[in-house]
Amino acid sequence: MTAQLIDGNALSRQLRADVAARVKTLAGRGITPGLAVILVGDNPASQVYVRNKVKACEDTGMHSVLETWPATLSEQDLLARVHALNNDPTIHGILVQLPLPAHIDAQRVIEAISPDKDVDGFHVASAGALMTGLPGFWPCTPHGCMKMLEHIGYDLRGKHAVVIGRSNIVGKPMALMLLQANATVTLCHSATKDLAHHTRQADVIVAAVGKRNVLTADMVKPGAVVIDVGMNRNDEGKLCGDVDFDGVKAVAGWITPVPGGVGPMTITMLLVNTLDAAERSQG
Ligand code: GUN
């Protein structure tokens, strides 16, 4: 078997066209959705990510503001910027790019963002809403993975989903979203014994560890859906995921590539959250 590709670029183009159409409708009512992105320091990967986020906003007709601050910015000054953006009516979504410099308590900064503008979905109120099934912003990367499953028409009810990785940004919210879609969920992590024992039983596998070759062909049930959240570099410096793509694609039923899989979907779901925030602000 050769797995079918789930093309994150193609799906993103489709979803971003829907976003652009909704932005136009809102513009007719005099509202332009606005996203503020704060970058502290000069992490090169973060610089690329925030540029892509701001460009995606512009491409869909949204307003965006990029604030870049030196790594020496104090926590107090960063909190003051967040408070100012909370009170800025032209801004509907606030994103503070992580990681932050070590002298800043990232969780304190996230909790300072108004839950109504928490388009990253990292605020404890957003996490609690997801946990309890109440409306709130879902973290963009796992939400993008759910959109990919929806796109291929995959019914998760009663299926066994295995998530590898327990981060607050991907693994934990991913498990909750799969659970909400009626999958039976196993959440594996660095202390899991015999990872392959779990993955071999899975109908759906989401790999979100940040390490190459975490999932190899011998660990995958024939026909399974494999979603690769990893963003790593191989020995030649080429972008690669957590999954041994060439090996696993010979066994899986569906697979996401890296690049061109989950990555573009993360930014797309950020646009969707920002647009939702703008629409909700109108009541
Ligand atoms: N750093 C890496 N991914 C993300 C993300 O999705 N949001 C924020 N704020 N920082 C990140």
Structural features, described:
- With 283 residues, the chain is an alpha/beta fold.
- It has two domains: 31-114, Rossmann fold; 140-258, Rossmann fold (3-Layer(aba) Sandwich).
- It has ten helices and eleven strands.
- Strand 9 and strand 10 (239-240) form a beta hairpin.
- The model has no long low-confidence stretch (mean pLDDT 97).
- The site of guanine has 7 residues, from strand 4.
- One of its GO terms (molecular function) is methenyltetrahydrofolate cyclohydrolase activity.
- Keywords: Amino-acid biosynthesis, Histidine biosynthesis, Hydrolase, Methionine biosynthesis, Multifunctional enzyme, NADP, One-carbon metabolism, Oxidoreductase, Purine biosynthesis.
- Could you give me the name of the CATH homologous superfamily of the largest domain? NAD(P)-binding Rossmann-like Domain
Q: Could you give the order of strands across the largest sheet? A: 1-11-8-7-5-6
CATH topology tier name of the largest domain: Rossmann fold
What ligand species are in this complex?
guanine
Beta-strand content estimate = 15-25%
Q: For this structure, what is the CATH class of the largest domain?
A: Alpha Beta
How many DSSP-defined strands? 11
Total separate domains:
2
Structural class call reads: alpha/beta
- Radius of gyration in whole Å, from Cα? 19 Å
Proportion of residues in helical segments: 40-55%
Distance, first to last CA: 50 Å
| Low-pLDDT windows of residues | none
Largest sheet: 6 strands, parallel
Mean pLDDT equals 97
The CATH architecture of the largest domain: 3-Layer(aba) Sandwich
Shape: globular
Order of helices and strands: EHEHEHEHHHEHEHEEEEHEH
Number of helices: 10
Organism: Hydrogenophaga crocea
EC number: 1.5.1.5, 3.5.4.9
Pathway: One-carbon metabolism; tetrahydrofolate interconversion
Keywords: Amino-acid biosynthesis, Histidine biosynthesis, Hydrolase, Methionine biosynthesis, Multifunctional enzyme, NADP, One-carbon metabolism, Oxidoreductase, Purine biosynthesis
